[in-house]
Write a structure and sequence with these properties.
The protein has 319 residues and is α+β, with helices and mostly antiparallel strands. Helix content is 46%, strand content 22%.
């Protein structure tokens, strides 16, 4: 029976290949009983083929989302065609620990999955094959790239000294908010302010002291506004705040509160105690303005009046 021996030998070769594949492979019958469980599945689940074969998949692994998996599997049984899922749709079918040294930061193995209809001798689809691919390296690489891009995007729009938005990005936000006002007629107010006699601080105590004054001003500003408000460093010692859905009267109240908080601050720097004040210009957006530049100009005019009027005060643009 040389042909018979060849068949047996070929079968053993095939089983050896199945067991040593670097992908997970299991076969399920129509009742979701496990009929095949290869070496990859044994190694990563900690359960041998003898432990799982003949058992219901959902009873053996209750953490599997039964409804989700059955919907995928039933389409394979019914349509007799393959189905796929990626780690981006669902991170894994079975929660295997990640043992890869390169992607050791991942808590579990990210998996892509393929479901394959298996034709029985009677011509029916009574079994499906489930193939699990370890794509942890790909997933971690993609997420690391996304995180890096997010970080770069944040850096590109953030002023390093103050951690507020830089001038370029903040002014883009001002344009967007002006366009929103034109579309919805929901009011907003712009506050522009700068630090009084800032040059004197630099000349007297040095630029490091000036940087500390700017940092403290930005921290005080951030703690004084809402998360919906948009604050930026406009340049040097000048700052801008867009107060969403806020009128001039309400914004003036905030401006005064911020002014008083700043005036009460004291900075200890190299045996010196530094106090400083700010002047603020407040301008509510109005139908008379044709673009965001006019809005900015109105707030600047009010700021100029505050400076000209003696500093350490806030002025509302009168139109």
């Amino acid at each position: 029976m040389p042909g018979h021996n060849t068949d047996i030998e070929g079968f053993h070769w095939l089983m050896d290949m199945v067991q040593t594949l670097d992908v997970g492979l299991m076969v399920l019958d129509r009742d979701y009983r496990i009929m095949l469980w290869n070496g990859f599945m044994e190694n990563h689940s900690g359960q041998s083929a003898a432990d799982v074969i003949g058992n219901n998949l959902f009873e053996q692994f209750p953490d599997i989302s039964k409804n989700w998996f059955q919907n995928k599997a039933e389409s394979v049984f019914l349509l007799e065609s393959r189905a796929f899922t990626t780690y981006e749709q669902r991170p894994y079918l079975l929660r295997f620990k990640n043992y890869r040294p390169i992607t050791g930061t991942a808590e579990f193995m990210y998996q892509n999955m393929t479901l394959i209809p298996l034709l029985s001798p009677d011509g029916k689809i009574n079994h499906i094959g489930v193939i699990l691919y370890d794509v942890t390296d790909i997933a971690i690489g993609k997420y690391a790239l996304e995180a890096a891009n997010t970080s770069l995007a944040k850096l590109s729009r953030t002023d390093r000294l103050t951690e507020l938005y830089n001038r370029g990005y903040w002014e883009e936000c001002l344009q967007v908010e002006f366009a929103r006002y034109q579309r919805t007629k929901q009011t907003s107010t712009l506050i522009m302010f700068d630090i009084d006699h800032f040059k004197k601080v630099n000349d007297t105590y040095g630029h490091q002291a000036g940087d500390e004054v700017i940092r403290l001003t930005s921290r005080t500003l951030r703690s004084s506004i809402r998360t919906t408000d948009i604050a930026g460093r406009y340049g040097g010692e000048e700052f801008g705040v867009i107060l969403i859905d806020t009128n001039a009267e309400q914004s003036h109240y905030l401006a005064e509160r911020l002014r008083k908080k700043i005036a009460a601050l004291k900075i200890g720097f190299q045996q010196h105690e530094i106090q400083f004040t700010i002047s603020l210009g407040v301008a509510e957006v109005s139908p008379a303005m044709s673009d965001h530049a006019q809005w900015l100009s109105a707030s600047d005019q009010a700021l100029y009046q505050a400076k000209h009027g003696g500093r350490n005060q806030s002025v509302v643009f009168a139109g």
